[in-house]
Amino acid sequence: MRIQLSIIIIFFLPSFESCSSEDKTTLLKIKISLNNPQILNSWDPRTDCCNDWIGVECTHRRITGLTVAAGDVVGHIAEEIGDLRDLVILDWSSLYRLRGTIPRSITKLKNLTYLRFRVTELSGPIPEYISELQNVTFLDLSFNRFNGSIPGSISLMPKLEAVQLNRNKLTGSIPESFGSFVGKVPDLYLGNNRLSGKIPKSLSKSDFNTLSLSGNKLSGDASMFFGRNKTTVTLDLSRNNFHFNLSKVKLAKSLVSLDLSHNRIFGELPLELTNLRLDHFNVSFNRLCGSTPQGGRLQSFEVYEFSNNLCLCGTPLERC
Ligand SMILES: *[C@@H]1O[C@H](CO)[C@@H](O)[C@H](O)[C@H]1NC(C)=O
Ligand SMILES: *[C@@H]1O[C@H](CO)[C@@H](O)[C@H](O)[C@H]1NC(C)=O
Ligand SMILES: *[C@@H]1O[C@H](CO)[C@@H](O)[C@H](O)[C@H]1NC(C)=O
Ligand SMILES: *[C@@H]1O[C@H](CO)[C@@H](O)[C@H](O)[C@H]1NC(C)=O
Ligand SMILES: *[C@@H]1O[C@H](CO)[C@@H](O)[C@H](O)[C@H]1NC(C)=O
Ligand SMILES: *[C@@H]1O[C@H](CO)[C@@H](O)[C@H](O)[C@H]1NC(C)=O
Hints:
The protein is mainly beta. It has one domain: Leucine-rich repeat, LRR (right-handed beta-alpha superhelix), CATH 3.80.10.10. Helix content is 9%, strand content 27%. It is built from three helices and 20 strands. The protein has an eleven-stranded mixed sheet with strand order 1-2-3-4-6-8-10-12-14-16-18. A three-stranded parallel sheet has the order 5-7-9, with no helix packed on it. It has a three-stranded parallel sheet with strand order 11-13-15, with no helix packed on it. A hairpin with a 2-residue loop joins strand 1 and strand 2. The longest helix is centred in the first third of the chain and has 13 residues. The termini are far apart. About 3% of the residues have low confidence. Bound molecules: 2-acetamido-2-deoxy-beta-D-glucopyranose (6 copies).
């Protein structure tokens, strides 16, 4: 019986395709929408898409991972992407002439946990419907040309762990809803956009592990990101127009990286800075005054991390 079975298996093996024909057809449509680029040469209809095609991962004959990277691809994201129903990882990056937007059909991918379109020319608004992808933990739309405002509905994605929207052309303010994520507060990267206005007060309720707002046009008070009870590790508020009194701020013990450079922050450096295990620190180009607290890791930083303030003094700067 066992011998018979193995004969049958051996007999069928050479012609057995592990790729479902439905998924194969879909992938070939995607290939056409990307204008049959060289990086997809391995996507040959005569071969098995699960075993032979670069960037394709399968589980039980269905496509669960699709990685397309680094190529001069002229095209758009095909509507048919939504037919790859079992997709868990969708990772497209460095596709320099991938244009258009993210099609609505993507919301059919209920099992998607990892969504990345990074370093492409995708443009227009980031669609609100992205938040219908309720299983996504990692959302990376960085280094694209998305414009318009950040959809507040992102806060409704319950499993988010990281959101990277940095290096786009996003405008408007940070959504009020980012003070109340339905799940845990994700690491948030919004740097190098064109965001403006004041930080909504609601954000004081969110305790970010990592927050980067660098290189925008945000203004006013950003002291809500500080607080003794926070567990923030990395805080980058550099290159904005923030204006608040740093003397009044209480620092979280967890802070390891703090960049406040290029703002209009005033007051004095808090003494608590000497208790932190800082490995990155920059308060240059602000309006700080008073003597630099002495101790901890603070004096291990260069003059350039303290320079160009109103009247800050003491090592590593000049004596007070
Ligand atoms: C999603 O994942 C679940 C559990 O792993 C699986 O049963 C299901 O078939 C997958 N596909 C869809 C479309 O839900
Ligand atoms: C999330 O994925 C699970 C399987 O992993 C699936 O059963 C469920 O329907 C998905 N949830 C949503 C909200 O899409
Ligand atoms: C986004 O960019 C497009 C194309 O450049 C432009 O037509 C549109 O007005 C922009 N939208 C916003 C909100 O800036
Ligand atoms: C910080 O946490 C302590 C203990 O959990 C609590 O009593 C206190 O009110 C909190 N302080 C602030 C400013 O939230
Ligand atoms: C900043 O706050 C400190 C402590 O409350 C206060 O003494 C100081 O006068 C404030 N500085 C300015 C410029 O308002
Ligand atoms: C701190 O900011 C200044 C001004 O932008 C810059 O010259 C310096 O290199 C920065 N230091 C670090 C460690 O990033």
